[in-house]
């Protein structure tokens, strides 16, 4: 008989090390490492094994906005407000290769499934694709007319999807470098987009408080998720009602499938390198040293810490969210 579900997630790991707000996180595919970026201009690589040490990588000149492990886990990419992308070898040496990537803040970086290329998105309104092992720029996709918040490869690496403040989601063919389709249904800035693991559909999140899912083969809108609880955006609530304002009328009402998740929401040079990158090639001197810091569990958490929590919920999806510099992570598993 299955064990009873706990009312709240249990604390599994608590990482301290960042000196300012945590902006992004990414697990390696083998789940043995967790990378995080921060407004303190540093990356941290945390080891999930208890009592293991973590490392701080310094090199960026401004806030780190995005991080992504290569499929093999041997490389780690980061983007920054300093307009550069760095490819790190996530070990104690902290060696990195610098890509002078964009003319404005880099918002997103993502490796292709074969690890041979990666895609970046920026406030300069462009999406760019780069060769990992040759360490060079390949081509640019430039039909967006406002900041590009996010770009992702499809699981098979044939397509790229991008989301922008121009209120569109664009689907690109990597080989022809042409825009296959533009999805214009969002009523506000589109902040994030990603492919379903099957590669058959994409989901996009927007400032209009909605999530939309499209089929990439027919371009048909499959799902349109919108708030049913009557809550305004947190920033709007603070502006209009002040801190501690009462929820809007009807806020107690839930979407039909929301109750089953309620418990969780109370609590996300030498030999060639395995990925083809030569360690330290073209790296800046200030990006070579990593500072070891403690990654041991702690009972309480504070601002700028990373907290990992686990929960048993009726689903097969992973979930994560962060606020005030903390990360909460758990796994939803089928009962």
UniProtKB/TrEMBL annotation:
Subcellular location as annotated: Cytoplasm, Cytoskeleton, Cilium basal body; Cytoplasm, Cytoskeleton, Microtubule organizing center, Centrosome, Centriole; Cytoplasm, Cytoskeleton, Spindle pole
UniProt keyword list: Coiled coil, Repeat, WD repeat
A single GO cellular-component term on record: ciliary basal body
CDD domains xrefs: WD40 (cd00200)
Repeat region (WD), residues: 15-56, 57-88, 99-140, 141-182, 183-224
A biological-process GO annotation: cilium assembly
SMART domains to which the protein is assigned, alphabetical: WD40 (SM00320)
Region called Disordered, residue ranges: 227-299
Primary localization: cytoplasm
Family in the record: Belongs to the WD repeat POC1 family.
Name used for this protein in its record: POC1 centriolar protein homolog A
Biological source species: Zalophus californianus (California sealion)
């Amino acid at each position: 008989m299955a064990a009873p579900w706990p009312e709240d997630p249990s604390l599994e790991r608590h990482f301290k090390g960042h000196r300012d707000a945590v902006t992004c996180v990414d697990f390696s595919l083998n789940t043995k490492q967790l990378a995080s970026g921060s407004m303190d201009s540093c990356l941290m690589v945390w080891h999930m094994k208890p009592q293991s040490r973590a490392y701080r990588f310094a090199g960026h000149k401004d806030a780190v906005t995005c991080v992504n492990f290569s499929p093999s886990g041997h490389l780690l990419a980061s983007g920054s407000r300093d307009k550069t992308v760095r490819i790190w070898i996530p070990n104690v040496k902290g060696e990195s290769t610098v890509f002078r990537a964009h003319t404005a803040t880099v918002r997103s970086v993502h490796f292709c499934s074969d690890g041979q290329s990666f895609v970046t998105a920026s406030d300069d309104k462009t999406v760019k694709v780069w060769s990992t092992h040759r360490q060079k720029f390949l081509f640019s996709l430039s039909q967006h007319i406002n900041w590009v918040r996010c770009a992702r490869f499809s699981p098979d690496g044939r397509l790229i999807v991008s989301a922008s403040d121009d209120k569109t989601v664009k689907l690109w063919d990597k080989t022809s470098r042409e825009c296959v389709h533009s999805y214009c249904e969002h009523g506000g800035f589109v902040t994030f987009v990603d492919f379903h693991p099957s590669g058959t559909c994409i989901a996009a999140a927007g400032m209009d408080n909605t999530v939309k899912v499209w089929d990439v083969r027919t371009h048909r809108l499959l799902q349109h998720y919108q708030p049913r609880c009557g809550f305004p955006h947190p920033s709007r609530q603070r502006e209009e009602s002040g801190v501690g304002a009462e929820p809007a009328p009807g806020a107690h009402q839930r979407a039909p499938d929301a109750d089953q998740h309620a418990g969780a929401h109370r609590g996300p040079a030498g030999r060639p390198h395995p990925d083809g990158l030569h360690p330290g090639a073209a790296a800046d001197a200030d990006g070579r040293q990593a500072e070891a810091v403690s990654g041991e569990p702690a009972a309480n958490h504070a601002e700028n810490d990373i907290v990992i929590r686990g929960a048993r919920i009726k689903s097969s999806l992973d979930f994560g969210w962060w606020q005030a510099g903390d990360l909460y992570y758990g796994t939803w598993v089928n009962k």
